[in-house]
Specification:
The complex is a heterodimer of chains A (407) and B (253). By secondary structure, chain A is mostly helical. Chain A has one domain: Formate dehydrogenase/DMSO reductase domain (Formate dehydrogenase/DMSO reductase fold). Chain A has 14 helices and 3 strands. In chain A, strands 1-3 form a two-stranded antiparallel sheet. In chain A, α4 packs antiparallel against α13 and α9 runs parallel beside α12. By secondary structure, chain B is α+β, with helices and mostly antiparallel strands. Helices cover 24% and strands 20% of the residues of chain B. Chain B has 8 helices and 12 strands. Chain B has a 3-stranded antiparallel sheet. Classes of the chains: A mainly alpha (407), B alpha+beta (253). β2 of chain A pairs antiparallel with β5 of chain B.
Chain lengths: 407, 253
């Protein structure tokens, strides 16, 4: 096996700065949106006292969930000793940090009082899973940063494996924690399901890997680095498995819900009568997010092309956003059963009169804030790979696979 | 310090100077009734548990008196629609602490009306999930928000099973000293806490209800009107299955 070399991202300066400028512009627009929303208050968003978490949360939760999943590639190399994945580890750990940073930035900037972040750091309610998550996120960044250092510094190489395992365990807890944010909301039909936490873990596998594949292919392509089929084939097969696992969990989630009578109304809402939520469920979550990528990945011809792999990864991401939208917004739009066995026929405060769902139409500003989170993630990633050695110089077949020449 | 915080602080000082109530820590209130009276320092104790019994039979469909009274008492009527806001969207964004709901029984078709506000849960999910501890339950059973440490994450609103809370979606120009209020924070019914801390024993909604549908008082005092009524009539807690032991009970739903 050839020794693997890493080097800084070497694309020519005008192109590099052009990319940074473009991403920077998206981040700046998001910043302006935040100023606008904070200056006026949340009335300029589509959020209300019924739909309290809107578009920013959809993006933030997607990014945070993807962050822990992006670390998987590194974990497979370290914790499970798979040689082919070893050179892929650095970028994987980097994306875990930048995705988390992008997601947290959106989450914080959507607070009613973002200026009080210091309070959030100093006043802790230890009963709150939300407060615990703040610790989990900070700790995750620290552990993964350490992990990157140990991967890069040969003197630290002997500690690299235990830190890798620690990072792997941490990420499982972190995603479970993120899933539990919903799991703790027992009052809402859509969230009161034990399966939500493991489903978030599986979703993180798929979304994180999809982001990883796209970033890897893009950074290599523009820099003229080679990725062989050995690496790509493994990554895309893994993506297929994860998309199938998300599909499986989706089935179990809704079938168990259908089993319990108290959830029938919620299920009818998501699966049949929910309008935009039903559409996003079948079209986005199930078709684009699961069936389409599975179809592409296992298609004898399409699955072998790079375009096919890019399409599959993109589908997983778009489907993932739809999934989070259905969970976050759809879960709120369905009126809570405050009075089981009774129908609310009039209310002075929008209680889902006659079972009507709550309305939500996101405004441009809140959507731009969410997109800004994605831009921030990419911006941080591109800066890091330019100044530090994250990318292997080549992932050609003979580099990646020690047995390739023989077979 | 942001402008808002300064404002909050100014108000806080003003309030302290005026001699009403100062929150020392969640659950501990410093009372000094007036500048003349000897200052009275006394923590809120668990000897009292404030609660309510609401008789749905007496609540008249379409009546709005308790809502209007609460709006006035707590300055909610001072929250104006921002210029340029969409009216129907703003209706869904403006704060409300109490509302009237009319229910139809799915089997019998019987209609009932009742007022609904924060149920002052003994095990409040809103306080459990709040990351900063801004949502808290006082020893006397009142659940409220310390608006100086609320970061506006709205997790409490996600967790409240009764949809009792409101987020302040816009700048509030005018507010009452005893009910500070700021853009970007969450609030809900606090059993008119400023009245109780000043030695009054009724809530504004109760006083306003001419049908006497609301009985308010100390659940721990067996002689109180609310305890007597609870003993006499069958009553239920809404969403009893969640085992939150709310301080607000209903009869004849
Ligand atoms: S009713 Fe809602 S806001 Fe009031 S104490 Fe219970 S959970 Fe908290
Ligand atoms: S919005 Fe305020 S009171 Fe509610 S959970 Fe967040 S910090 Fe606590
Ligand atoms: S007790 Fe006071 S704050 Fe609560 S609903 Fe009645 S009037 Fe409003």
């Amino acid at each position: 096996m050839k020794k693997i070399h890493f080097s800084e991202w070497g694309i020519d300066s005008p192109r590099y700065w052009g990319m940074l400028a473009l991403l920077g512009a998206f981040v700046a627009v998001a910043g302006l949106s935040v100023l606008y929303m904070e200056h006026n208050g949340h009335w300029v968003t589509g959020m209300t006292n019924q739909i309290v978490w809107g578009m920013p949360h959809v993006f933030a939760i997607f990014l945070i969930v993807a962050a822990s999943g992006a670390l998987n590639v590194a974990s497979i190399g370290t914790a499970f000793d798979k040689k082919v994945y070893k050179p892929l580890g650095r970028l994987s750990a980097l994306l875990a940090i930048t995705l988390l940073a992008g997601g947290l930035a959106v989450l914080v900037l959507d607070l009613g009082q973002p200026g009080r972040l210091l309070i959030a750091m100093t006043h802790y309610n230890f009963k709150s899973i939300f407060a615990w998550n703040i610790y989990l996120y900070m700790g995750f960044m620290a552990v993964v940063a350490l992990y990157i250092w140990f991967m890069m510094d040969w003197r630290m190489n002997k500690y690299y494996k235990p830190v890798g395992i620690l990072a792997f365990l941490w990420r499982i807890i972190l995603t479970t924690g993120t899933g539990s944010i919903f799991g703790f909301i027992v009052a809402r039909q859509g969230y009161d399901a034990a399966i939500l936490a493991p489903m978030f873990v599986i979703m993180s596998f798929a979304y994180g890997l999809a982001v990883y594949i796209l970033v890897l292919m893009f950074t290599f392509k523009v820099d003229g680095r080679e990725i062989g089929d050995v690496v790509l084939r493994r990554l895309k097969n893994l993506l297929g498995v994860f998309a199938a696992a998300v599909f499986y969990f989706t089935l179990v989630y809704h079938l168990t819900n259908l089993y319990g009578t108290e959830n029938h109304a919620y299920e009818a809402f998501i699966l049949r009568d929910g309008g935009i939520y039903t559409l996003l469920f079948w079209g986005g979550w199930v078709f684009v997010g699961c069936l389409l990528p599975i179809g592409i990945v296992y298609h004898p011809a399409l699955g072998k092309t790079r375009g096919g792999i890019i399409a599959a990864a993109t589908a997983v991401i778009l489907g993932g956003l739809a999934t989070v939208y259905v969970i976050v917004i759809g879960g709120q739009a369905f009126p809570m059963a405050i009075f089981p066995g009774k129908t609310i026929v009039a209310s002075g405060f929008f209680d889902g009169v006659n079972g009507q769902p709550f309305l939500y139409s996101p405004t441009l500003a809140e959507t731009l804030l969410g997109i800004g989170g994605i831009a921030l993630t990419l911006l941080l990633t591109f800066i890091a790979i330019r100044v530090l050695r994250f990318l292997p110089t080549s992932l050609a077949n003979e580099v990646a696979d020690p047995h390739y020449a023989k077979s | 310090m942001s402008k808002l915080e300064q404002e909050g602080r100014r108000e806080f000082l003003k309030k302290a100077a005026a001699g009403t109530v100062v929150t020392l820590a969640p659950g501990v209130m410093l009372h000094s009734l007036s500048a003349e009276a000897a200052p009275r320092t006394e923590p809120v104790t668990g000897k009292v548990r404030w609660g309510m019994l609401i008789d749905a039979n007496k609540c008249a469909e379409g009546c709005n008196d308790c809502v209007a009274a609460c709006d006035k008492e707590n300055g909610l009527n001072l929250v104006d629609m921002p210029e340029g806001a969409d009216e129907s969207l703003w209706e869904r964004q403006r704060p409300r602490w109490i509302r009237q709901i009319t229910l139809k029984d799915n089997l019998t078709g019987r209609l009932t009306s009742l007022p609904m506000m924060c149920q002052h849960c003994e095990e409040p999910p809103c306080a459990d999930v709040c990351p900063t501890g801004a949502s808290f339950r006082r020893a006397d059973g009142i659940v409220m928000v310390d608006r100086h440490i609320c970061i506006g994450c709205r997790y409490c609103m996600m967790a409240c099973p009764y949809k009792a809370r409101s987020f302040i979606h816009a700048e509030v120009a005018e507010k009452l000293t005893h009910t500070p209020r700021g853009k970007g924070c969450v609030e809900s019914c606090n059993f008119c806490v400023h009245r109780l801390d000043n030695g009054q024993t009724t809530t504004a909604c109760q006083d306003a209800c001419k049908h006497q549908a609301i009985i308010f008082g100390d659940l721990n005092d067996p002689q109180s009107a609310v305890s007597q009524a609870l003993k006499k009539y069958p009553s239920v807690a809404i969403r009893d299955d969640l085992k939150l032991n709310p301080g607000v009970r209903y009869s004849n739903i």
